[in-house]
């Protein structure tokens, strides 16, 4: 891997750590952070796969819009999943979704055990599950 790609992965990691922090603290994911993830996803996809997974990104936006309208998932979470999916291959998408589900379930479980009031008032921060799920899907598959 080139130094440039290492730098891009470092930027992605820093942005995902920031998103995780802000999602836990305020249950928000800024649009600026989503744009940064989107911009860093493109060179990652082109470097590793020579293509961008636009179909997955648009599918997640469409499905996410429905989930958002039913208050199942936040808009920032939907945009984050969509932006990250640009850099994943079709073979990485299902592990990515599975990891988000498992890690999100773990966050819900821990949240209800230790932070019940906060979870009930503010909801569940899925940003951490999405961030960890992305890196695991990238490096496991």
How would you describe this structure to a colleague?
- The chain is built from 7 helices and no strands.
- The chain has 141 residues and is an all-alpha fold.
- The protein has one domain (3-140).
- Helix 1 (3-26) runs antiparallel to helix 2, helix 2 packs parallel to helix 4 and helix 5 (90-114) packs antiparallel against helix 7.
- The mean pLDDT is 94.
- Keywords: Cell membrane, Hydrolase, Membrane, Protease, Transmembrane, Transmembrane helix.
Question: Layout of helices and strands, plus pairs?
Answer:
Blueprint: H1 3-26, H2 31-49, H3 54-69, H4 75-85, H5 90-114, H6 116-122, H7 127-140
Membrane topology: Multi-pass membrane protein
Subcellular location: Cell membrane
InterPro entries: Preflagellin_Peptidase (IPR052218), Prepilin_IV_endopep_pep (IPR000045)
In DSSP terms (H or I, runs of 4 or more residues), the helix count works out at 7
General form: globular
Structural class: mainly alpha
Give a short account of the largest sheet.
Answer: none
In total, the number of domains comes to 1
The level of helicity is over 70%
SS strand fraction: under 5%
Q: How many extended strands? A: 0
- Unreliable sequence segments: none
Ends distance? 17 Å
Mean pLDDT across all amino acids: 94
- Rg over CA atoms, rounded to whole Å, is 15 Å
Order of helices and strands: HHHHHHH
């Amino acid at each position: 891997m080139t130094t440039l790609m290492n730098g891009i992965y470092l930027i992605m990691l820093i942005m995902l750590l920031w998103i995780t922090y802000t999602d836990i603290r305020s249950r928000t994911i800024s649009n600026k952070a989503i744009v940064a993830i989107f911009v860093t996803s493109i060179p990652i996809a082109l470097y590793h796969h020579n293509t961008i997974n636009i179909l997955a990104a648009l599918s997640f936006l469409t499905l996410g819009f429905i989930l958002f309208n039913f208050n199942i998932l936040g808009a920032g979470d939907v945009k984050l999943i969509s932006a990250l999916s640009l850099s994943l291959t079709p073979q990485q998408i299902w592990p990515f979704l599975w990891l988000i589900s498992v890690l999100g379930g773990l966050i819900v479980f821990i949240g209800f055990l230790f932070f019940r009031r906060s979870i009930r008032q503010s909801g569940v921060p899925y940003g951490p599950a999405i961030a960890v799920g992305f890196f695991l899907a990238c490096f496991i598959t």
